[in-house]
Design goal:
Elements (H helix, E strand, L loop, with lengths): L7 H10 L6 H5 L2 H7 L10 H10 L14 H4 L1 H12 L32 E10 L12 H15 L9 E4 L5 H9 L9 H5 L11 E4 L5 E5 L5 E8 L3 H15 L7 E2 L3 E2 L11 E8 L9 H7 L2 E4 L12 E6 L7 H23 L2
Antiparallel strand pairs: 1-5, 1-8, 2-3, 3-4, 4-5, 6-7, 8-10, 9-10
Helix pairs in contact: 1-4
């Protein structure tokens, strides 16, 4: 039998008691805002408790807030807008309309290959999140919702052809050989994040979840992991043009079959408010053994809006001087601008590495 979940009042009490919490939830949910929102419900039936439970149960959270459904961004805007402004470091919540290329055209030639010699960039990856506009996020979903969402998503995935044509592997009933292969490919997602668990991210696990990928493994989609869909384009080397154009083609093809949740001034809506806007993360794994050891490395990365992290994700160390370098900004700029900012930042860091090599 599932453990009883804390209600809104219990979540508030736990948060008030967490005097040492440094989370954005603790910072942004004042008594005044709590009183204003505590009895409200979204059109999906979502409550404030479902937005703040993870942060209340985990006072060591960095953010501590999830949107219970797309409508939460309207119903609970006094809280979520403040969290968004602080996290994304923007003075106001103002996001432009989607734009994937220069002047709205799908012409990405200027990206080309960031490392034509293949000496520095190990791999390039661009991913984005999408949410169905007719379904809530994990806290308000039923088992039937998850199954139905998986069904319509898989139907849309079947419409992908050419270099995007692939196969879908549901987690439910997955055979051991497939599971082993997906683990080796680092494609398989798991149910082991305590923050996501308290946000109801793993209800009915593994029902409704699965992974789609192409035979060459350059394009994959996670279905009902944290977000309804997470689309990922990746390959070895530094050909950002090829990686990005593949992702844009997939997004535009999927949009012909599915309707995604968007909101004026916020862009594409996701379960976690840290990902919305473009919902885009573009990254390279790059060898920078010299520059990464200098005292100004982190400050320089920040100055070009690049987030450095270890190759195994946030809060991990570099291995062999290889760093994961990604765009820091997701909100307040277009998809094209976010990718361009990542490209320029990576090239600036690469130039510093070459200077130290004496080139």
């Amino acid at each position: 039998m599932a453990a009883k979940k804390s209600n809104t009042a219990e979540c508030w009490s736990k948060l008030e008691a967490a005097k040492d919490s440094k989370s954005l939830l603790k910072k942004c949910l004042t008594k005044e805002i709590y009183e204003q929102l505590k009895d409200k419900k979204t059109k999906f039936g979502g409550t404030l408790a479902e937005c703040i439970r993870s942060g209340a149960e985990n006072p060591d959270s960095g953010v501590g807030v999830y949107a219970c459904d797309p409508d939460a961004y309207t119903t609970f805007a006094p809280l979520l807008d403040d969290v968004i402004k602080v996290y994304h470091k923007v003075p106001e919540v103002k996001h432009p309309k989607p734009c994937f290329g220069p002047d709205g055209k799908d012409d990405f030639k200027e990206f080309a290959n960031l490392d034509p010699e293949g000496k520095y960039i190990v791999s390039t990856r661009v991913r984005t999140g999408r949410s169905h506009d007719s379904y809530g996020f994990p806290p308000v979903l039923t088992k039937e919702d998850r199954v139905n969402m998986e069904k319509v998503t898989v139907e849309a995935l079947k419409s992908l052809d050419g270099k995007l044509k692939g196969e879908y592997f549901p987690l439910l009933g997955m055979d051991k050989a497939t599971e082993k292969q997906l683990v080796e490919d680092h494609f398989l997602f798991k149910d082991d994040d305590r923050f996501l668990r308290e946000a109801s991210g793993y209800e009915d696990w593994p029902v409704g979840r699965g992974i789609f990928h192409t035979p060459d493994k350059k394009f994959l989609v996670w279905v009902n992991e944290e977000d309804h869909l997470r689309l990922i384009s990746m390959q070895q080397g530094g050909d950002l043009c090829e990686v990005y154009s593949r992702l844009v083609l997939a997004i535009k093809t999927m949009e012909k079959k599915l309707s995604f949740a968007k909101k004026d001034e916020l862009g594409y809506l996701t379960f976690c408010p840290t990902n919305l806007g473009t919902a885009l993360r573009a990254s390279v794994h790059m060898k920078i053994p010299l520059f990464s050891k200098t005292p100004e490395f982190n400050e320089f990365c920040a100055s070009v809006n690049i987030q450095p992290r270890g190759i195994h994700g946030e809060h991990t160390e570099s291995v062999g001087g290889v760093y994961d370098l990604s765009n820091k900004r997701r909100l307040g700029l277009s998809e094209w601008a976010a990718i361009e900012e990542m490209k320029n930042g990576v090239l600036a860091i690469l130039a510093e590495e070459k200077k130290l090599e004496g080139k």
